[in-house]
Amino acid sequence: MKYIFLILLLSITDPLKTTKINSIKKEAGEAYKAGNYEKAATKYSLLADSLGVTEDEILLNLGHSYYHLGDTSGAKHSYQSLLTSSSKDLKSIASQQLGVMAKDAQKLEESLSYLKNAIKANPGNEGAKYDYEVVKKLLEQQQNQQNQDQENQDQNQDSEDQENQDQNEQDQDQENQDQEKQDQQKSDEQKESEQQKSDEQKDGEEKEGEQKEQEQEQEGEKSEDEKQREMDEATKQKLQEMNISEEKARMILEALRNNEIQYIQQQKRQSSEPQNSGKPDW
What we know:
Elements: H1 2-33, H2 37-50, H3 56-69, H4 72-80, H5 88-104, H6 108-121, H7 126-241, H8 246-272
Helix pairs in contact: 1-2, 2-3, 3-4, 4-5, 5-6, 5-7, 6-7
């Protein structure tokens, strides 16, 4: 009895569901044609997600609606679900749309791959062929620009390397010049120091010579004094032997000195008086 009721219920609900699906399809199609992509996307999404409608046309229009609304994520998901479609036309259109979206995102190699698959799926898809040629030229321009940028970068790098090399050479030259100046300064300082030491050595030798001369003179003076003292000692000893006191000896010496003076004066007077010419010289 339960099974009979279930069968009767399904037989009643299926026509109602079909009627609802057809009604929503109609509303979605009218909204899409009218350019009301927001309503169309809502209706097509209801069919695909809630009512389990998996028709390729529904998924394609859903993808188109998302694309016109700028919902790239939703559009890409819908188009990718058609890449395994049995309809080569729909597969080609979906691949073409994915290629266009990749081109808009500046993913040119990815775009070229999608467009190539679109042409393979439907060689008569002229729109896909046109887009393929456009993207191919853009990719060539991009590669040429990249090569040019790389060439410019290499040239700039070479120029920068040359400037760095020149700067390094200048720095090295300056460093060598500074080192030469330092070496020359050290050499001059060393020569000056050696000259100063030489002068100091000469001064020291001169002072040492003078000091030695002074010492020799002092030694000579000391020697004369010692000789005089020795003579005085010898004289004292002789006077003691002769039993003559120093005072008496001094008086004798003074008397002898006076006699010597008188004798000299007398000789001078005699030599100054005129001689008698009548007397012999003797």
